[in-house]
Amino acid sequence: xxxxxALYAAAEYPDQIGAxxxxxxxxxxxxxxxxxxxxxxxAHFARRDNSVREADxxxxxxxxxxxxxxxxxxxxxxxxxxxxxxxxTVFDKTSAGAAWNRTLTFLRKRLN
Length: 112
Description:
Layout: H1 2-12, E1 20-23, E2 41-46, H2 54-66, E3 71-76, H3 93-110
Parallel strand pairs: 1-2, 2-3
């Protein structure tokens, strides 16, 4: 849910948010208007995520770019919550490390 909320906040408050990072976030109760999303987006998705299918994640990215937005998406061979090191059953150190490095690079480039 947090990833979708990051996108929602960026769409609703583009004058206050300069970039958004979505970690495996698509939520049916958080409606995103891609037409309003004008900040650059970095998205991380897990291919083995049972709650966010890869096809749905790709469709979201397509909706953003079709609406004129900018999104850089990465798909990891991992489970949902692969970044959460407090959940050893799904934490994936390699994927989390790659996502973290990409996130830092993205934010440094977009928010300076």
